[in-house]
């Protein structure tokens, strides 16, 4: 039996045998076949028929053994190769952003036109239940993961009775697929040479970007989220200037991890201590972040909205503390 090998030019196949478009290159055809191979969208492997692949002097038993061995090799390859989510699902979700439960809060804060722009620019969408979906899209425009969170539409607070979950494997209908997270908003690192700000919460990154538009805001999704200090994730920060904005209860931790990030990613890293200085011990225990202060009216820190209802931060240089 001829050995089955993958054709590295995936774009030659226009569609997957499962019927999905191959414009994103997720269907890997076997050499010599346009319609046989492995689809990373549906997770199925489509093997050539006996008559396609065997000469008349091969027995059924030999083909069965070869097919079994080949399938094992493909399964091993699939478990290590990074999978991506289908673009059409991502696109449909982002187009429905006004239906997500975070949108009313963003609209109240920033008006509808800006709220819509934020959702489109930061790839915020809705699922069928109206929960908020933060889509992780890497610098090469691959859709890596879909993080689903339920918010109170009026307060913008997370509903902690409903667990946060990652929907990637459910979308692919394959619990064995190999998904690798990236920074939230990583795709916008392609936008010029602006310094990079990193915080924990996706919602905070979006809100803070309105106050500090001269920074590219990324979110880790957690204190250790997305393996953000590991080489595979952090390499996108190479040769960039990075400012970390840890939550009130994570300053010491992120200060230590800043050294690791700088070494791993070959970037210049500073850690903002603004929350550590401003927060009371109770607020630090609550884990308040930069957005909590930016949205506090009547605050004396100068971080909130002015009497004219625009961010006070626009009145001075946000880089001044780091000179």
Task: Please supply descriptive tags for the structure shown above.
single chain, 323 residues, alpha/beta, Dna Topoisomerase Vi A Subunit, Chain: A, domain 2, 4-stranded antiparallel sheet, 4-stranded parallel sheet, 11 helices, 32% helix, disordered C terminus
Question: Quick recap of the structure?
Answer:
This protein is an alpha/beta fold and 323 residues long.
Residue share in β-strands: 5-15%
Oligomer: single chain
As a percent range, the share of helical residues equals 25-40%
Determine Rg (CA atoms, Å). Answer: 24 Å
H/I helix tally: 11
Mean pLDDT: 79
Q: What composes the largest sheet?
A: 4 strands, antiparallel
Which CATH class of the largest domain? Answer: Alpha Beta
Number of strands: 11
The span between the termini is 67 Å
CATH topology of the largest domain: Dna Topoisomerase Vi A Subunit, Chain: A, domain 2
Q: Show unreliable segments.
A: 50-78, 297-304, 315-323
Class per helix and strand makeup: alpha/beta
Strand order of the largest sheet: 4-5-6-7
The helix-strand sequence is EEEHHHHEEEEHEHEHEHEHHH
């Amino acid at each position: 039996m001829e050995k089955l090998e993958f054709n590295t030019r995936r774009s030659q196949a226009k569609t997957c045998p499962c019927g999905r478009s191959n414009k994103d290159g997720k269907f890997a055809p076997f050499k010599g076949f346009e319609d046989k191979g492995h689809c990373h969208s549906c997770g199925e492997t489509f093997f050539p028929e006996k008559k396609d692949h065997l000469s008349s002097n091969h027995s059924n038993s030999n083909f069965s053994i070869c097919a079994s061995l080949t399938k094992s090799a493909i399964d091993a390859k699939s478990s290590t190769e990074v999978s991506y989510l289908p673009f059409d699902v991502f696109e449909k979700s982002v187009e429905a952003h006004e239906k997500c439960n975070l949108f009313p809060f963003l609209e109240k804060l920033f008006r509808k036109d800006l709220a819509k722009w934020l959702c489109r620019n930061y790839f915020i969408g809705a699922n069928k239940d109206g929960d908020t979906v933060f889509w992780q899209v890497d610098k090469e425009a691959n859709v890596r993961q879909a993080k689903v969170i339920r918010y109170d539409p009026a307060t913008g607070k997370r509903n902690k009775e409903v667990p946060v979950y990652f929907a990637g494997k459910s979308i692919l209908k394959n619990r064995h697929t190999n998904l690798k997270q990236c920074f939230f908003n990583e795709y916008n690192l392609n936008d010029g040479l602006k310094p990079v700000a990193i915080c924990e919460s996706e919602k905070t990154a979006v809100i803070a970007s309105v106050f500090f538009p001269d920074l590219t805001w990324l979110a880790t999704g957690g204190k250790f989220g997305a393996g953000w200090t590991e080489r595979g994730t952090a390499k996108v920060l190479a040769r960039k200037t990075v400012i970390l904005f840890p939550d009130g209860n994570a300053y010491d931790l992120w200060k230590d991890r800043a050294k690791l990030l700088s070494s791993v990613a070959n970037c210049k890293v500073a850690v903002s201590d603004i929350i550590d200085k401003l927060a009371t011990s109770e607020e630090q225990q609550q884990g308040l972040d930069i957005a909590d202060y930016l949205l506090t009216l009547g605050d004396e820190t100068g971080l909130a909205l002015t009497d004219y209802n625009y961010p006070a931060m626009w009145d001075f240089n946000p880089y001044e503390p780091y000179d």
